[in-house]
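The following block was generated as part of the benchmark described in Methods. Ligand: guanosine-5'-diphosphate.
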Amino acid sequence: AFGDFLSKKMKKSIEKNMQKSTLTAENIQDTLKEIRLALLESDVNVDVVKELIAKIKEKAEGGYIQEGVKANQQMVKIVHDELIEILGKENSPLELSKKPSVIMMVGLQGSGKTTTANKLAHLVRKKNSKNPLLVGLDIYRPGAIEQLVELGQKNNISVFEKGKQDPIITAKQALEFAEQNGHDVIILDTAGRLQIDEKLMNELNELRKNTSPSETLLVVDGMIGQEIINVTNEFNRLLKLTGVIVTKLDGDARGGATLSITYMTKLPIKFIGEGEGVSSLSPFYPKRMSDRILGMGDIETLYEKAVENIDERSMQKTMKRMFMGQYDMEDLRNQLAQVAKMGNIGGLLKMMPGAGKISEDQVNDAQRKLVIFSIIMDSMTLKERRDPRLLKAITRKNRIIRGSGRSEKEFNELINNFDKGKKQVMEMTKMMKSGRMPQFGG
Ligand code: GDP
């Protein structure tokens, strides 16, 4: 089915590269390389791929680190969120508030326009409790009007048609007929052509001006691949579309062109067709599509669960250890994880006393350190974190730098920060033990 190809590739690359517990520069890079390839192979537009990869990279590297949540879960979450953005964020529902609401269906011949008009009538009757009227205006394609009538009869939907009469006159009569017969949604099945031409566009434009549609929907054949973007842009330029319906996606497992439409044309995909049957038209939900591509049931919940599972008691344990003078890098790591878990470090810092003096730069720096330090500490063994003196050995140091993909400078920064922090912790606990509570803020 639609998206299967991409889904398989995505899952494989994330699973393969994200075995480690956290995101590192290295596994991010490897995964992105493969995701990029998977997107291109699925026929996603190059510009969309670029944008998507840049966004994912930025998030993965820029402090999305969440201790206790596996790297693959983090990556899935990031890719999932960015896909939703690219796909248009929210479902774009039909505008049906006008009484009656006119929906004008346009598209090239063979795109599935007539079939889809019928499916849409069926859908608004079922889901929106509307009383639709189909109007046959395709006077060019032989048999198009008969086809519409036949489909209407089969599915018990009223069809208005006046044969080869001028479509504008027929449309006006249909509006009157709808009013007299209580039809609140009027679906116009307009003429298609084999390719876009000025004459056809002018006719459609006249029809549009005469019927003031609430929706002008372009029906495109999903099988034509990247050509979808050109067709959509052309129709939109001349007809001011309100959305796109992509058909025949049951035959296109790759579907990358469809995934590119909204980003490339700024138009929402309102429905997708995945079969010839009357009920095989579904509203398009960016989130559900993204779920589908990443093969997740409900990844939102999955992620929340994982975050919840971070050991709640680790903070208390750390406090206790600090009091006993036992502060080591494992404790620092737990603390940073807690901070990360609380989310936005900027927001956190601002809530602290004396926050007025904290600049944007300082917040960014803290955020960056949090991420980088976590990555470096993840490349240490537990033994090394428990006994940071071991880190003085040059072979250990080099191994950690290599493994984390960070620089020596950053490694040293971590050690210095840890040493400074440990000194403060020791002084603090000494004061606490002697009954003199340290003063914060002010
Ligand atoms: P029109 O010229 O744009 O009105 O195209 P039609 O509505 O006649 O559709 C052309 C062909 O595509 C017909 O055989 C339809 O049954 C078929 N078709 C339309 N939508 C879909 C779809 O979502 N999946 C499949 N498999 N076939 C479709």
